[in-house]
Fold this protein.
Amino acid sequence: MTTRTVLVGTPVVPGIGYGSVVRPAPMPELAAECGILPESARIDEAARFHTAATTVSDRIRLRATHASGAAAEVLTATASLVVDRGWNRDAMKLIDAGTPAPHAVDQAIEKFAVKFERIGGLMAERITDLRDIRNRMVAELQGLPEPGIPQPATPSVLFADDLAPADTAGLDPRSIVALVTEFGGPTSHTAIIARQLGIPCVVAAAGLGAIEAGTTVLVNGESGVIEIEPDAELATRAVTEDRIARDVASSWSGPGSTRDGYRVAIVANVQDGETAQAAGRGVAEGVGLFRTELAFLDRDTEPTVAEQAALYTDVLRAFPGKKVVIRTLDAGSDKPLKFVPSPVEANPALGVRGVRIARDYPELLDRQLDAIAEAGARSGSTPWVMAPMIATVEEARDFAQKVRDRGMVPGVMIEVPAAALLAGQILHHVDFLSIGTNDLTQYTMAADRMSAPLADLTDPWQPALLALVSIAARAGAGVGKAVGVCGEAAADARLACVLVGLGVTSLSAAPNALPRVGAQLATVTLEQCQNAAAAALAASSPAEARAGAGAALGL
Ligand code: PEP
Ligand code: MG
């Protein structure tokens, strides 16, 4: 009997990926000393430089033609920067003086980067692009493969230590059929982007380093298991079954309900008018979380009430007559906003973030609420408005008053264990709760949601987290008020059934994840969900919770 090797990581995006391993190519290295070129070689070296610049620029431009939206714009701008006259002239001067082309590129780009840094603002943000160009140029001149993310011609599985969100955003789901990282947590931005792209993804998989490029692997984004050199027939069958499941999901058209007709709203997480309109064209029944701060990450100054009102109106109009939950600015910690003053803190995740900013700057919150109310009036709908990072009953009461004064429906996020424990009292003041499982996990487990080594702790299947969800959901059921989940937990189809069994009334996730969640829920009864919830709550580990729930759901 042969034993098959498996690695296990934390599953974040469901689906099966089967293919050979590819890895990001390493960054090229340059020797510290480069010597001086003889005069006779300098003309050829200059020609080599020009050819490399044209090749690298053309390659990026070609990639831009296959991309769309912001990605295409960034790639086109980068292609132009490769052949920019400014730094190209500096590099040529260095080559004329005898510096070999790779070193000339390195020095000329560095000089340019320093200049960009001094100018600051948008120019400073382009330094990463410049360094990327440096790496591509040096690799081309050294005859090495293009550094960074490969673009394989056949379906492949990308193994990496971790990826920058920009690298993840550039992945093509047609060639990269699964993504596995050794580091990176389940709620990291890499994982969130992989979910948007619909690429099966497993993070925090220890031991990846030992698997060579070219090895065939089967990745299960639901269980987190990575099989090395799997049985080809079984692997092909798993891929086919996954494709059928995806087809079933894509033909699911809502509304959300269990097989026996118990209604659960399936709603979307959005960040601006464009994402809301896209969600409106899909299966989403409304918006469960509009992360307003994400629309203003690039702003140096506070958007005016009129500007904000225009943006919020766009989102409300994407779902006429439907429920749209707008979250007030969740600035601070991993999402700093330039126009929101933030103190230097040793522990920003435990510091002045979310609704706490209103302690010193209440007018910021007031102006945002005025803008949301204005958007409600313009679109003819009544916004549901919630505050992030509520920790006390008093905070919930004060926030609710401000929202009610403007004729809107007040709610709060449950992201802090204190708020989950006192959900019953909080519900005296607000009309709904929305559980942010990403932060609630982080604060329950005292483990940074960005931490790769602690990814096992920030697993949303942690029974302690589910116990807090249960408290909040029961409090809501007791008074007949809505309790939704809008963290990444709601995007995991199996966990979504558990959440329903715990009493959650809506599931809000990235629009891409909704069909799978809705289709899964439609296959089980409410009683099965409740049994799955009981099994998960009684478990002593995430793995046990997954297994117990899976058995109760017949999966
Ligand atoms: C959460 O914490 O679960 C949540 C939805 O908010 P964010 O991910 O924006 O912090
Ligand atoms: Mg949060």
User: Anything to note?
Assistant: Residues 42-66 form the longest helix (25 residues).
